[in-house]
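Hi P.,

Sorry for the delay on this. The queue was packed all week, but I finally got your sequence through. Input first:
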Amino acid sequence: MDYISTRGSAPALDFEGATLAGLASDGGLYVPREWPRFSAEEIASWAGLPYAQLAAKVMAPFVAGSLTEERLLELTTQAYGRFAHDAVTPLKQIDSQQWLLELFHGPTLAFKDVALQLLGLLFEEFLSRSDRNLTIVGATSGDTGSAAIDAVAGRAKVDIFMLHPKGRVSDVQRRQMTTVLAPNVHNLALEHANFDDAQAIVKRVFNDKGMTDRFAIGAVNSINWARLMAQVVYYFAAGLQLGAPHRKVAFSVPTGNFGDVFAGYVAAQMGLPVEKLIVATNVNDILHRALAEGDYSQGTVTPTAAPSMDIQVSSNFERLLFDLGGRDGKALAEQMAGFEATKAMQLTNAQREGASALFTSARADADEMASTIRWAYESTGELIDPHTACGLFAARTAGIDAGVPVVTLATAHPAKFPEAVERATGQRPSLPTRVGDLFDREEKYETLPGTFEAVTEFVAAHAAPKV
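Then the structure:
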């Protein structure tokens, strides 16, 4: 399997190369040259497999040429052995049609662990084959940072610099990053910045020749294909439990950066029978506007109780636009250049029509988010976090046929957002015992101006050169 850039002019890479590169050299995102496809018989044969074995089956075509199937299984077994639930991503039924897919049983209590525990091992595997050092520069709206740091803390040949907007992540999210004191971990709190500002700095680092000549810059954000690949697996896991491939399943996905729901699109391309993918946003609704009206125009970020979705530039949407536009890298490069210059873009007819075949969307405001948290608790006894609430609101209002199960991706443990959950339900969720001492741990982070210059100066002073 080789990987091509959505913008058409970067060289194709194998899986190892795409994993270590992250962003393509032309500013695009790597995608497989073609989508592998499984038959209904193959998918049906996986029913009942343990998660690590299922993961190795689903991901095998993507890593061909870089990892053997035997080595991939060793890595998935190691990655998912750290999860607190034997099912890794257990399903929970909440009424006759609605289900929750709990993705928060990893070490940092968020869905990012499912991908990043594996990605950390992939980095270590590939770096062990060379003398190369990797400098990871990432941005987080809350959960990616802690999951990535946990995955690479203390690993050889890797330095990680994680940018977060100061004061715009929850206390639990911040502490899960800043209490990791490994010498290869650097937390950077950016003043007067939001997530989009931090993400823009990261993308600029990838395109800065002065940095890339000296350092091997790598990505842990969902611009890294390997992250999305790992997320495809839990769509198959949930679908199989609910009757796939003999029955269609709909999924509702709270998303800001479009990575988690794009993984569902990939699963559908691979043969999983998906009825609909419901894109759930909060009031930062660029994805809802793009899918409902074709208007992909950047607005002002509004801080909400669901900070991981407080995003107005959804990086992974580019991968979908590439696929729906006939995989024309030159045309997409022009389209994205226009967006980057004007902060506005209209989807083409082909992109709109292609998206509407599989996607629908919904927007949840603060009241709808809170009322859904309250409904879940009063009706089922389940405490859910604000991001999951956006997804469940969208699932319950999407009008999916009653015979089709609807799975909402529960993306974070409610204890990561205790104030919002307590306001809605009167119940304050407690942290699981394995992280119960989080607020007693020492913190370490640097506060920097939210500028490219400040970040690159810090990285250059603390990172190991590529060789």
